[in-house]
């Protein structure tokens, strides 16, 4: 399936839900994509095509929807999948990164032994909005001696400026569809 066909199918499948989870938010619901095995396969294929020029040693999926396509992508690429979760959710020793949100702060973690020096890690999530969590994940990878192989997202919400926030990392930003 070509890029244009994939975008068209994604536009048709992704639901726009107004006022969820709170008034004034237009939520992009990707569950119809996951309910269609053919479209889900095409999404993974689309990421593979977009990333074919990148050297990737591992994929770091951001909790929790970054796991949905990040893990199948890692399997298809034959690389490890790294789980990035909210503080306190991983069972083994972790390294953490605290970052600021619009109202407050958050902290993400990964296991202490998953990123080795020089490892090229792709940061993956379902959605690029403001870029805060993706940037924090990139910083966490760098703190462990890893290098960024790039960023990949199913959806980018262009009006929220996430791509601009990720520009200082000098890594490719791949998205399958933008709204």
Folded structure, characterized:
By secondary structure, the protein is an alpha/beta fold. It contains six helices and nine strands. Helices cover 32% and strands 34% of the residues. Strand 5 and strand 6 form a beta hairpin. 32% of the residues are buried. The model has no long low-confidence stretch (mean pLDDT 96).
* Shape, per Cα inertia axes: globular
Helix content: 25-40%
Instruction: Report, as a whole number of angstroms, the end-to-end distance.
Output: 21 Å
- Unreliably modeled segments: none
Largest sheet features: 7 strands, mixed
Per DSSP E runs of 2 or more residues, the count of β-strands stands at 9
Radius of gyration: 16 Å
Structural class label:
alpha/beta
What is the average of the pLDDT values? 96
* Order of helical and strand elements: HEEHHEHEEEEHEHE
With strands numbered from the N-terminus, the spatial order across the biggest sheet is 5-6-4-3-7-8-9
Strand content is 25-35%
Question: Per CATH, which architecture of the domain at 54-178?
Answer: 3-Layer(aba) Sandwich
The top-level CATH class of the domain at 54-178 is Alpha Beta
By DSSP (H or I, 4+ residues per run), the number of helices equals 6
Per the CATH scheme, the topology name of the domain at 54-178 is: Rossmann fold
